[in-house]
# Entry
Amino acid sequence: MRKNIAVIRGDGIGPEIVDQALLVLNRVAELYGHEFAYTDVDMGGCAIDKYGDPLPQHELDKCCAADSVLLGAVGGPKWNDVPGSMRPEKGLLRLRAGMGVYSNNRPAKIWPQLADASPLKKSIVDKGIDFIIVRELIGGIYFGKHETFEENGEKVSVDELRYSEEEIRRIGRIGFETAQKRGKKLCSVEKSNVLDSSRLWKKVMHELAAEYPDVELSDMLVDNCAMQIVKDPSQFDVIVTENMFGDILSDEASMITGSIGMIPSSSLGATGCGLYEPIHGSAPDIAGQDIANPIGTILSAAMMLRFSFSMAEEADCIENAVSAVLTAGYRTGDILPADGNATKVGCREMGRLIIENLTKG
Ligand code: IPM
Ligand code: MG
# Structure
């Protein structure tokens, strides 16, 4: 199969981790007789430097024309003082909205080899951690009106949190369908004791439940959910939640599995063209030192093969290679055990080891 992949290296550690993922994809293409063509796209701080815009229309167009998009990370202290509407992160939000990818899927699964890296007690980890956060990605407070104005001699800021029934319904369906393919348990997370948008969220989820009688729907307030994720994560199968709650809970969920550096994500909308990115940021403090963990990006590439290109075998091949390298005791700094009982490797070496372990099943 021939596929055109738009590649956004971005800022900070973005270029180094994406380069490793592309080397992995090249090897998979060789093994399985595919052809992956890459189109470079500038987004984030590097696009601000080059074009004065974190995502110019011509770069967004390249993404929409591709079969899918692979992204590293954007942002960094260099662009902290640019106006909000021009920040690197704004490029990412415009990309998500421009591609229409409303459904962000963030798995929180513990790799048995990394159980020691979890900050949770062994007794909790041993009950199992394997759930998915389905995060609404192009609505809510991220996309409402943002304004700062003067009132009574001081500055006041307002961020609008808005959801329509249809926006909730379409992400709700993804939540139910994801649960149908897994443990058939869906937990809808909101703040309906305070927010109108959450009360609407809850109402729509319960309406949808009638269409999915095989899925057990439960409701949880977001503050309680934050607590339950550390108290007993084994209770969760699929969580469906709005944009900002999903952003926050997915960082928490990644940490209990050991490291945010390990977690991939997929974002999909009405078409097969998806956006695939690790959930971590650009980590400018360690950029260019060849110490970043490329696994989150490599696993994002695997998700792209599975969900956008229907290449399940090829995706398994990458995931098995990652597993084999972890089993052999290789670790980047972020997942190094406290007792040091592992072989510490850098970003490039981790990529090379994964490629060496890619075998056609
Ligand atoms: C994420 C990130 C982004 C978000 C930022 C960089 C805008 O934190 O993908 O989780 O909040 O969505
Ligand atoms: Mg985040």
